[in-house]
Amino acid sequence: MATILDIRNLGKTYRSGGKELAVLTDINFSIEEGAAVSIVGPSGSGKTTLLGLCAGLDRASSGSVELNNIRLDDLSEDQRAQVRNRYVGFIFQNFQLLPTLTALENVMVPLELRGEKNIKNQALDLLDKVGLAHRHHHYPAQLSGGEQQRVSLARAFSNRPKILFADEPTGNLDAETSDKVEKLLFDLNQDAGTTLVLVTHNLDLAAKTQRIIRIKGGHIASDELVNSDQLAGNSYQ
Amino acid sequence: MDIDRTIFKTPLNLPWLLKMAWRDSRRNRSRLFLFVSSIILGIAALVAIYSFGYNLRDDIDNQAKTLLGADLVISSNQVPAPALQKMIDSLGTTRSQERSFASMIYFIKNQGTRLVQVKALAGAYPYYGALETTPTSANQNFRNSRKALVDKTLMLQFNAHVGDSIRIGNLSFAIAGILNKAPGQTGLTSTVAPAVYIPLQYLEQTGLVQKGSRVNYRYYYKFDEGVDAEKLSKAIEPRLDKEGLNQDTIASTKENTGRSFADLTRFLTLVAFIALLLGCIGVASAIHIYMREKVASIAVLRCLGIKAKQAFLIYLIQIVGIGLLGSLIGAALGTLVQRALPAVLGDFLPIEITMATSWAAIGQGVALGVIISLLFALLPLVSVRNISPLNTLRLSLEEVNFRRDPLQWLVYGLIILFVLSFSLLQMENWRQAVYFTGGVLLGFAVLTAVAYGLMWLMRRSIPNSWGYLWRQGFANLYRPNNQTLILLVSIGLGTAFISTLYFVQGILIDRVSLSASGNQPNMVLFDIQTNQRDQVAKMAQQNNLPLLQQVPIVTMRLEEINGRTGVEIKADSTAEIRPWVFNREYRVTYRDTLVDSEKIIEGKWRGTVNSPNDTIYISVAENYADNLNAKIGDRLLFNVQGALIPTVIGSFRKVDWNRVQTNFLVVFPKGVLEEAPQFHVLVTRVPSNQVSARFQQALVRTFPNVSVIDLALILATLDEILGKIAFVIKFMAAFCISTGLVVLIASVLISKYQRIQESVLLRTLGANRRQILTITALEYFFLGALAAATGILLSVAASWALARFSFEAPFNPSLGPPLAVFAIVSLLTVAIGLLNSRSVLIKSPLEILRTEV
Ligand SMILES: Nc1ncnc2c1ncn2[C@@H]1O[C@H](COP(=O)(O)OP(=O)(O)OP(=O)(O)O)[C@@H](O)[C@H]1O
Ligand SMILES: [Mg+2]
After folding, report:
1. Could you tell me the CA-to-CA distances from B534 to B268, B428, B721 in Å, in that order?
2. pTM greater than 0.80
3. Which of B4, B16, B304, B397 to mutate to test the interface with A (most CBs of A within 10 A)?
4. B253 touches chain A (CB under 8 A)
5. Is the CB of residue A133 less than 8 Å away from at least one CB of chain B?
6. pLDDT digits over B303-323, tens only?
7. Domain that holds residue A60
8. Which residues in chain B land under pLDDT 50?
9. The ABC transporter domain covers which part of the protein (chain A) (predicted)?
C-alpha cells in the first residue's frame, strides 16, 4: 500500500519570553493509505502540535512532513490551504463550526471552495448519514454539542479527504453520543477508505484503531500495532 | 507519484465569495448596520451641502437678473464729471437712477431715531424682480408722491405701521409700505444698513445732500432686445476705470455671487467632512472589534482550505456592502436635510433657493461614503490575511497581529492622501489643502492627547475612598475593546465647536463694550456741516455731553503711487499692491497732533505745513501701508474733489481700531485741507441709553442731516450678526455631536455581550440592580463629562489664542454657557448610554444569556 503521510526527523520548538521550548523532537513515522491510527499521550505532551504539523496548519522547526507525496515544508500558507482542501479533513476538539452558517452550509464550504457544482444533495446525504438531515437549516448555536460534533464530522468528510485528522473528537461528549460519533468515524473510514489519525485520551477508542503511537515529553515513546484479541480483551475489562 | 501542482491554481471564485459574504453577514446585519450608522450623518451633511451648493449655483444662474435688477449698473462715489455724466445719460433707452447715503430717520409717532440707508430712486427700477412690499401696490405708489418704503425690521423695531410718517432731513414722508425684499438684499444687509426708499424728486428738499456729503450714485439700465450688455460694458470699462467708477453686469453678478457662495459651501463642506472623518474612525474601531470576533471563523476557513486573499475578500465585500448601504441612507437623509438649509442660511442669501434633488450631489456623497468607509475599514481588515489556521487549535492573540502589519502603514498613507485630495478638490489650492489636512491631523492628535491626559488625571485623582461603584464605573472606560477614545474625540470636537462659538461671541461683545467703558467714547455724530459744527457742539454741551473729539473729514481718491496710475498698476501682475486702494473713497482728517489711540512706529510725525510750496508729509496706518506695499518717502497723489494734491509718506502709525471713535488710514498735516469741502465728526460719551435716545431726538429735529451711531446700535447689530452665524455653526456642531452619539450607541451595543457577562457576574457576587445601574450610569457620566471637558478645554485654548492674537482683546470667559454645554453633553451621554443598556440592566441574567446569543 502507498504511504499517505511520512514524517521525518520532525521537531517543533516554541520561543516564548526569549526561551526556547522544544515541544517535539525527532519524530519519525509513516502511515499507509486507509489505515486507522491513534496518537495518545499525557496532556501537554505535544499531540495537538503534532497533528497540526501533519495537517499543515503549522510549519515544522526541523524535519519534514510529506502528505500524499507533497512536502508541506516547501509550500506557502496559501498552497498548504489548497492541499488541505484537497486531501485533508480535520475534526476539532471544540467542533469549530462557523457560527454564521447553517449546518448545511457548514458542510458545503469545502466543496464550494473547490468550485464543485450540485453539492447540495451531497451535503444533505452526509448530514443524513450523521442523522441530522432534518436539522440542516439550523445554526450551530441551535444545536447541542453532540449534534455540532456530528456536523463537523460530516463537514470533514464532505471533500472526500484522503486523510482525516481528529483531535479528541469525543472529548466533550457523553458516553452515548461519543459512541455514535465513533461509529460514524469508523464507518465513514471504512466506506470511503479514508486514512484516520485520531488523538485521544480514551484508550477504548484508541484500541479500536490498528496502531497506537504514544507520545511522551515530545518523543515517540512507543509505536505498536493493536491485535484484535487485545482489542476484544480491552473492551470487556 | 507525481505531484498534482494544478491544485495550487484554483481561481478566486468571486461568486462564491459574494455568497459567503452574504451568508456570514446574516447573523450580524444589525451590528454591521450599526457600524456604518456613524457615517450616515457625515454623508447626510455632505450630500445636503453639495445639493444646496448645486441648487444655489443653478439658482444664481437663473436669478442673476433679479439679483441685479437690471442689465447694467454703474456706480460712483462722487458726482460724475459733466463729460462722463453725458455718456452715462446716453447709454441705453430705459434708465433709472438712485442716490443712496446714510442718514438718520425719525419716526414721528414714537419719536424713534435710527441710522438707515436712504435710497432715493427715479425710474422704473428694478427691471427684473421687484421691490417686494406689503401691500404689494406700495412698490409703485411710493414713486410719485411723498411716500417711502421702510425696511421690515425697522418697521418692527419702531412698531410703525403703513400710513405713519417718518422724517428724513427736512421733509416728512408717509410710509407707503413695508419693504420686504429688494434686489440683491439679504437678511444681513437689512440688519447692518436697513433701507428706506424715497422718490428721487424729493431728495433736494430734504436738504441732506450738500457738498462733501457721502453719496453713492447708481445708474440702472435695461437694454433693448439684441443689445449685448457684456460687450457694451467692455467698451466703457477703460473710461469708467479711469474715473474710478464701478460697473456690474448680469454675468459679473453671477460670477461674484457665485464665488462668495462657493466659499460658504466650501467651508460647510469641510466641516461636514470632519464629521464624516469622525464617523469613519468610529467605523474603523467597530470593525476592529468585529474582526477580532471573526478570528476563529477565519481560522476554520483557512483550515478548510480557503486562501488568505479569499478570506480578506469575504469581509471586504461585506464592508463595501454596508458602506454602500450607509451611504445610500445618508444620501437620502441628506436630501431631506437640504430642505432645512435655506432656513439656516436664508439670512445670507440674496435669492430664492429651490430644493431640487441633486443626483450629482447624491452620486458624489455615495462614492465618497463607500471609498472612505472602505479605507478606514481596511485598517483592521488587512490583518485578516495574517490569521493562521493554527488559531483553531489554540486562540492566542499574539498570533493574530492586528497592529503590526506593514500594509497598515500603506493604508494610513492612503487615508492621508485621500483627505488631502478631497480638500484639494474643495479648495483648489495646494497649500490650503496641505494646511487643512495637517490641521485635521493635528486637531485629532491634540484632541486625543487632551482626552488621554484627562483620563490619566482622572484615574490618578479618584481616591480609594470613593465608593466601589464610582471606581468600577470609571474602570469600565478601560474595558477591553473599549471605544472610549473615539467617543471622547467625536463628542469632544462637537463640544469644542459649540463652546468656542460662545467664547468668541463673548469676546467680541466684550471687546466692543469694554472699549466703550470708563470714559471711553460711545457715540459718534457725523455728517456735520462746517457751519453746523459749533452749534452741534453747543447742543452736546447743553446736554452735559463731553466733546471728546471733533474731527474734520475730507473725502478723496488715490490717483497715483510713485507716479503710476491705478490702471497701470492693475495691469502689472508683479506689482504687490491691492487693487482696492484705488477703488475706495478715502476719508481723511488733518491735524497737528497724534491722538491716544495711535503711535508712530516708523518715520517722523510732521503736524503742519507752513508754506504752500512745502512738501506735504502724510502719515498712514501700518496695515494700510502693507496693502500699498509702501515705504517711507513714497509719493501718493490724491484727488480731492477735482484738485490734485501730491503727498509723501512721512510716517507709519500703529492704530488701535477697537474703539468707538474716529480713526484714519491717512492723516494730513494742518495747513493743506482747511479749505476743501468737508464735514465734521463729533465723538462723545452718553451716560445711558435714555440720554442717548433723548439727545438723538433733539439732534435729528434740529440738525436732520447729522447721523448718529451709538454703542447700543453697534452692539445690537453685532449681536444679531453673530446670532445668525452662530446658528450655522451650531447646525454643523450638531452633526459632529450626533455622530459621536451614534458611535456611542454602536459601541454600547457592540460591548453588550461583555456587559451582560459582567452584570451576571456582579449579580452572582451579590450586587443588586440598582448598583449595576449606578455603575453603568457613572460610566457614561465619566464618558460624557470627559468628552465635554476635552472639548471645552480645547475651546478655551483656541478662544484664548484668538482673543490674544487675532482680536487682541482680553479673554474673560463667562462660565455659564460652557457649563451648560458640559451638563447637556454629559446628561445626553448618560441618557443614551442607559437607554441602550436597559435590556442588560432590567432583565434577569439567565433570560438575557438565552436570548442574546
Ligand atoms: N504557541 C506556543 N508557545 C509556547 N508553547 C506552546 C505553544 N503552543 C503549545 N505550546 C506548548 O507545547 C506543549 C504541547 O502542547 P499540545 O497542545 O500539543 O499538547 P497536547 O498533547 O495536545 O495536550 P492536551 O492533551 O492537553 O491537549 C504544551 O506544553 C504547550 O504549553
Ligand atoms: Mg491537545
Report:
1. 52, 57, 36
2. no
3. B304
4. no
5. no
6. 888 888 899 999 999 989 988
7. 3-233
8. 1-2, 397-399, 850-853
9. 5-235
